[in-house]
Specification:
3-stranded antiparallel β-sheet; alpha/beta; globular
Length: 390
C-alpha cells in the first residue's frame, strides 16, 4: 500500500517548514529570533470590534449553528464597503458570501468549479493557495508573470492558443503577496476585456487592498464595467483590522461563481461563529480611523526596514503596498537559493524570513520580509544582518 494519497502526492514538501524547524530549534536553545517570516499582524483588533464580540457572546442564541453564507448583516456590510470604497454595487443576497478567511474561500471555490485536468493560469511567484487550491482540486497550473503589465497579457494570449483544454480561470492578486506589486484600473480593463472575449473566469484576491502607502488606493477589478460577468473577488479582514485568527473573509462578484461556492460550502461548514460575524460587521460599519493607524504603522516599519537594509548594503525596493518587502538576495549569496539563504540568516543573524521558493520556482532569487516587528526590533535585525553579511 502506498504511503501517499492521490491528492497529497501533488503537494511538494512545505518549504516554510524547514525554516520553521530551524527557528524553533534556535529558540529552544535560548536564542532570540526576530521573525519576519509570516504575515501575521502583531496588533490587536480595534477596541470597538473586540467589545462587540464580548457583548454578543452574552446572547445565548449566538452560540447556535450559524449560516454558511454568512449572516445577512455582514453581507450587507460588505456590500456597503464595496459601494463606498470602489463605487461598485454588490447584491448581498446573490453576489456575496462570507468565508472562513480568503484562503478557505479560494480553496473551496477551486473545489466547486474545477474538473480534473482543467487549466488554471496563476502568477509565479504567488501566494501558495492560488495555485495549490486548484492543484488539490485536480487542475493543471500554467504559470504566468506576476507583474501587472504587457508580459502578463502576452502570457494569457499564449495560454489560450496553446493550452488544451482552454484555461478555465486566471488568478490576479494585487497588491501582491509576496511581491507587493500594485495593478492599475487600466490593466484590469485589459484583463477583463481579454477574459470576456475568451470566456475565462477571473479570480481576484485583494486581501491587502487597504494596506497602501502612497495615497493611491488600489482598485478592485469589479470596478471595470462588465467584470461581474466573469469575475469574483476575495477580500479579508485579517490585515485591515488585525483579525487574522478570527478567519473572516469574503467572496463577491459573479453570481454564478458565488453560487457555486455557496453550494459547496453548504455541505462543508455552518459558517463562522456568529459573534465573530457580528463583530466583523461592526468592523466594516464602524469608525475607520483604525485603518489609517494601521497604514501609518506599517509605513513606519517599512521605512525603517528598507532604509536600514539599503544602508547595510542590501538593496531592497520599497513596497508601495502590502505588508511585505520582496527582497532580491544579495548578489554574492544568490547562488545559494532562497531556502539556504534563509537558513543562513537564522543561523548567523538570528533573523527569520520567508524563502521565495515557497511562492513558486520563479521566486527563488528573493526572500520575503513581513512588516510584523516593531521599529526597535527591526533596527536590531538590520544590525545583525549587516554583521552577518559582511
Amino acid at each position: 500500500m502506498s504511503n501517499e494519497f492521490h491528492r497529497t502526492k501533488r503537494l511538494p514538501p512545505y518549504v516554510f517548514a524547514e525554516v520553521n524547524k530551524l527557528k524553533a530549534a534556535a529558540r529552544a536553545a535560548g536564542r532570540d529570533i526576530i521573525d519576519f517570516g509570516m504575515g501575521n499582524p502583531d496588533q490587536p483588533p480595534p477596541r470597538h470590534v473586540s467589545d462587540k464580540l464580548a457583548e454578543t457572546l452574552q446572547d445565548p442564541r449566538a452560540h447556535r449553528y450559524s449560516n454558511s453564507r454568512g449572516i445577512p448583516g455582514l453581507r450587507k456590510a460588505l456590500a456597503a464597503y464595496y459601494g463606498r470604497r470602489f463605487n461598485v454595487d454588490i447584491d448581498p443576497e446573490r453576489e456575496a458570501i462570507v468565508t472562513l478567511g480568503s484562503k478557505e474561500g479560494l480553496a473551496n471555490l477551486a473545489q466547486a468549479i474545477t474538473s480534473p485536468g482543467d487549466v488554471i493560469l496563476a502568477p509565479n511567484p504567488s501566494y501558495p493557495i492560488h495555485a495549490f487550491g486548484f492543484i488539490i482540486a485536480g487542475a493543471a497550473i500554467r504559470s504566468i508573470p506576476f507583474y501587472p503589465g504587457p508580459d502578463f497579457l502576452v502570457a494569457m494570449d499564449r495560454a489560450v492558443r496553446h493550452s488544451v483544454p482552454k484555461p478555465l480561470a486566471v488568478i490576479v492578486n494585487y497588491p501582491s503577496n509576496p511581491t507587493a506589486e500594485v495593478a492599475s484600473l487600466d490593466f484590469y480593463r485589459e484583463v477583463v476585456a481579454f477574459c470576456r472575449k475568451h470566456e475565462i473566469f477571473i479570480i481576484s484576491d485583494i486581501a491587502y487592498a487597504e494596506v497602501y502607502f502612497d495615497g493611491n488606493p488600489p482598485p478592485s477589478i469589479l470596478q471595470v464595467p462588465g467584470a461581474k460577468d466573469i469575475a469574483v473577488e476575495f477580500s479579508s479582514l485579517s490585515k485591515t483590522y488585525s483579525m487574522p485568527g478570527w478567519r473572516i473573509g469574503f467572496c463577491a462578484g459573479n453570481e454564478r461563481l458565488v453560487g457555486a461556492l455557496t453550494r459547496v460550502k453548504s455541505y462543508l461548514d455552518y459558517g463562522a461563529f456568529t459573534p465573530i460575524q457580528v463583530a466583523a460587521t461592526a468592523a466594516l460599519n464602524g469608525p475607520q480611523d483604525c485603518i489609517d493607524e494601521m497604514r501609518a504603522r506599517y509605513k513606519s516599519r517599512r521605512d525603517v526596514l528598507i532604509e536600514g537594509l539599503n544602508a547595510a548594503g542590501w538593496p531592497v525596493p520599497a513596497p508601495p503596498a502590502s505588508m511585505f518587502a520582496w527582497a532580491p538576495i544579495p548578489e554574492r549569496y544568490r547562488e545559494l537559493g532562497s531556502l539556504e539563504f534563509s537558513k543562513l540568516l537564522i543561523e548567523k543573524a538570528g533573523v527569520a524570513v520567508a524563502p521565495g521558493i515557497g511562492f513558486g520556482e520563479y521566486g527563488d532569487d528573493h526572500v520575503r520580509l513581513a512588516l510584523v516587528e516593531n521599529e526597535h526590533r527591526t533596527r536590531q535585525a538590520i544590525r545583525a544582518i549587516k554583521a552577518a553579511l559582511r
